[in-house]
Amino acid sequence: MTSFLQQSFNGLVSGSFYALLALGLAVIFGMLRVVNFAHGAIYTLGAFGAVLAAESLGLGFWWALLLVPVVLAAAGTVVERLLIRRLMALDPLYNFLLTFGIALVCQDVLRMKYGSHSQPYEHGPFPGSLDLGLFDFPRYQVFALAVSVAVCTTVWVVLTRTRVGMIVRAATERPELTRAFGIDTGRWVTPVFGFGVALAALAGVLAAPMRAVNSTMGSDLIITVFAVVVIGGLGSVFGSVLAGFLIGMLQSLAALYVPVLSQTSVFLLMAVVLLVRPAGLFGKEEHA
């Protein structure tokens, strides 16, 4: 029982990163109808941003947690304005290829600068373990889980309880219908894209003290995150977050009980979900 609970908690921690990344992907896809393949590269840049802030600027973890997402969000809005927006009228494949190319460029630049070896980051707060009753768990991982839950909850409250949030959510989940009611969804495209980038960068900074910081850390993760978004439902904010935590737990429990399926379990679940509900668990099917 203790092993089950400890592995489940491990899964929630892993799922917290999936949830943050999937939340960013969901709002970007919902608003722009762009599959942002560079999302994993932004996650990587967030982690390297924390390393760079410590090594070159002498900034600690808390400053990195605050500044790195803001800087990368600003860079993301520039990319959206100069590149992504110009391809919006074309087939979505063009923006997919663009963001895929951006991801490759970022990965290769980081590899040229830092090599393929992992970079150490030892500036995370809350060292040691926390007694959770039946088992001890690293304090920092509890903190990372709490931050993810707090951010996802705050975003959900903003999207459901404020007028601006309702407009953004409507434009994310039903963009055509929102425009039909006379709401200018175009004005929200750039800030929503920047917000999605900030979430990926935040996940990267949170991952730096507990994950291997290297140029491929994002590419190793992004395929699973795409599967999470598909399972939750493309464009569904709530579905993406919930699926992120569920997939994290599924992978951890599979690693404990059926190790051979630990990596493929998410894709098996995706296949089953798509057979039963092609739009995902919380997605809405579009009717012609």
UniProtKB/TrEMBL annotation:
Bilayer-crossing regions: 12-30, 60-80, 92-110, 140-159, 188-209, 221-247, 254-276
Keyword Secreted: no
Record has Cell membrane as a keyword: yes
Pfam families for this protein: BPD_transp_2 (PF02653)
Compartment annotation: Cell membrane
Classification via InterPro entries: ABC_transp_permease, BCAA_transport_permease
Range of residues in the leader sequence: none
Membrane topology label: Multi-pass membrane protein
Keywords assigned: Amino-acid transport, Cell membrane, Membrane, Transmembrane, Transmembrane helix, Transport
PANTHER family: ABC TRANSPORTER ATP-BINDING PROTEIN, BRANCHED-CHAIN AMINO ACID TRANSPORT SYSTEM PERMEASE PROTEIN LIVH
Family: Belongs to the binding-protein-dependent transport system permease family. LivHM subfamily.
Name by which UniProt lists this protein: Branched-chain amino acid ABC transporter permease
Organism from which the protein derives: Streptomyces caeni
